[in-house]
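G., the chain you wanted modeled:
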Amino acid sequence: MNVTSSVGEKIREARIENGWSQRTLAGLVGCSPPSVLRWERNYSRPLPIYARTLERLLRIEIVPKGEKEPVDPRTSTDPNTHGSVEFIYAGSTSQGNLGRRGRLMP
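Predicted structure as tokens:
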């Protein structure tokens, strides 16, 4: 594996070395196959929980040692994170079928 490989290249090369399809890796990690595709093409980076699982399964380094791991506000228990998650109500609402936005505060 190339020392200067991007995260996506590392994931793809290690997945292929293990003989796994994107669907198989997604099942092992607990994400969707399109997520694996986005990571491999460097369209996005894995969330911390997926990054740790990928590192363990593929025996690669995604978050370099000593680098602070980004906080996922959806799973953080740190009260100083002040994260929020936006969600959209689907279906009919009092405003018709347009849906409405809301915020879920920790």
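The CA atoms of residues 12 and 89 lie 36 Å apart.

Shout if anything looks off.
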